[in-house]
Amino acid sequence: MINTNRWIVRYQSHPRVRLRLFCFPYAGGNASIYRQWSELLPSDIEVCPIQLPGRENRSTEPPFTHVTPLVESLLKILVPYLDLPYAFFGHSMGALISFELARQIRNQCYPEPQHLFVSGRRSPHLFTSDYPIHQLPDTAFWEELRLYDGVPDMLLQNPQIAKFFLPLLRADFAINETYKYTPGMRFNYPITAFGGLQDKKVGSEEIMAWREMTNSDFYVHLFSGNHFFIRQEYHQILSIIARYFSNEIAA
């Protein structure tokens, strides 16, 4: 692992990097979920997983509970790394963070991403009738988490592990559940959306609705799997990302 700062974890670096891929985690996730990605993408793509406060080497730092202060802090960190062409990838909560960060970047007139890859989350402009769970009593909160089909059993069944992760998970769900979409201009670069066909929380039509967020090309890829389909399908996802990057770098 290459230490850069607390926010960006780079597991490999190559001298001829032409494009950076910033990767944002799902609720309860951390930078290490993207550890293998740098090994599987072409060497001219530098994978830059984002380590949010409250996890792994930042476990003693309080996690954010609202998306706006989070993206404002992230933008200050990322500005020096926007000197090369780049793209964002985010799954679930990470898709929301990457979307709002891309809007902040546009508003501040910094170089914009070449591509936005969003995964496992409905388009942000869609209304959700989901009942907020981040303030539920512990037992009820864990029962709701079971609906996501993919939360590790050891987390749901081990009280000590559950107690350790509870504040982080509540904070991450608060980011999702306190979010209020504000209408704005569409992006002028492509968006690719990924979804799981058996995802109980996000339907295919909600994934495809991301087309409303861009004036440019829109692509959608649906895989067999639940909300955490990226754990099994990441090879295919990376193949798709590499193909799009190849076309964009060549252009």
UniProtKB/TrEMBL annotation:
Supply the InterPro entries for this chain: AB_hydrolase_fold, TEII, Thioesterase
GO terms for biological process, alphabetical:
lipid biosynthetic process
Organism, per UniProt? Atlanticothrix silvestris CENA357
Q: Where is the Thioesterase domain?
A: 20-242
Q: What family is this protein classified in?
A: Belongs to the thioesterase family.
Q: Which SUPFAM superfamilies match?
A: alpha/beta-Hydrolases
Q: Which segments of the protein form a coiled coil according to its record?
A: none
**What protein am I looking at?**
Thioesterase
